Amino acid sequence: MTDAPTWYDVLDVPHDAPTEDVRAAWKGRIADLEPGDRRFDTLNRAAKVLLDPVARAAYDETLPAQRVEPLVEEGAPAPVPRPDASRGVPTWLLAGLGVLAAGLVVATAWTWTRGEAPGDDPSVRDAQVAAERAVVPVLSYDHESLEADQREAQALMTGGYREEYDKLFTVLEENAPQTQTRVTASVVASGIVRASEDRVQVLVFVDRPTTNKLHAEPVVYKDQVTVSMQRVDGDWLVDDLTTSPTQG
């Protein structure tokens, strides 16, 4: 039986590749892809793990038959070991494990929004509404108004997530004008996955009609988007966002 490909295989880099090589491989592989392409999402997930020293160390611990020494680059702090490896794997990584995991998340969200858990809390509901409102500008853009689109999305994010978003948006700025891509996201439905006092995770189902040079008529991509909302000075802001195609 062939071993399942690792994130290193996805980006075609060796396990001891430094961050610069990982970033170069990631940018090279997504350069010619449309954001709606499933490979685009997969490559972004791989880069998100391998470019984060802590997430990379946790991921390396999950690899069978070959324990990879955590990469510690010169001048960077060593990753902090986690007591429970299963908890060390980020939720956005678990969301990519397949249909089963996606189904469990959907089932949890459906149960909670029926009033059996935190969906009844007004503050949690506020976070859900904020997630629905934010996901539209965060996932939408027009090749003719990229700067304005970026500013609108940034206003709805925490500082930490804004840095990550800006890195991805740089790639869009390089490619969208050439492909003449326009994406207009809309929310179909949403549900609460889990919640605490200042952090709420929301599952949002989104349609993304997309046009470009090859498709004058919109091609509608259907995604499930996991949005982590963080309360900052009384406002709910996007602190993490992961998309995956809706199955079926």
Could you list some keywords that capture this structure?
alpha+beta; Nuclear Transport Factor 2, Chain: A; 10 helices; 248 residues; 46% helix; 6 strands; six-stranded antiparallel β-sheet; Helix Hairpins; 2 domains
Question: Could you explain the architecture of this structure?
Answer:
- This protein is of the alpha+beta class.
- It contains ten helices and six strands.
- α2 (19-30) packs antiparallel against α3 (38-50) and α8 (122-139) runs antiparallel to α9.
- Residues 72-119 have low confidence and may be disordered.
Summarize the structure.
By secondary structure, this protein is an alpha+beta fold. The chain has helices spanning 7-11, 19-30, 38-50, 53-62, 85-88, 91-94, 99-116, 122-139, 146-154, 159-179; strands spanning 141-142, 182-183, 186-195, 199-211, 219-232, 235-245.
Could you give a short account of the major beta sheet? 6 strands, antiparallel
Q: How many beta-strand segments? A: 6
Q: Give the total of domains.
A: 2
CATH class of the largest domain: Alpha Beta
Radius of gyration: 18 Å
CATH architectural category of the largest domain: Roll
Whole-number mean pLDDT? 77
CATH fold title of the largest domain: Nuclear Transport Factor 2, Chain: A
Residue share in β-strands: 15-25%
Low-confidence stretches: 72-119
Structural class: alpha+beta
Amino- and carboxy-terminal Cα gap: 27 Å
Number of helices, where a helix is a run of at least 4 consecutive DSSP H or I residues? 10
Range of helix content: 40-55%
Based on CA inertia axes, which overall geometry fits?
globular
Instruction: Give the SSE string.
Output: HHHHHHHHEHHEEEEE
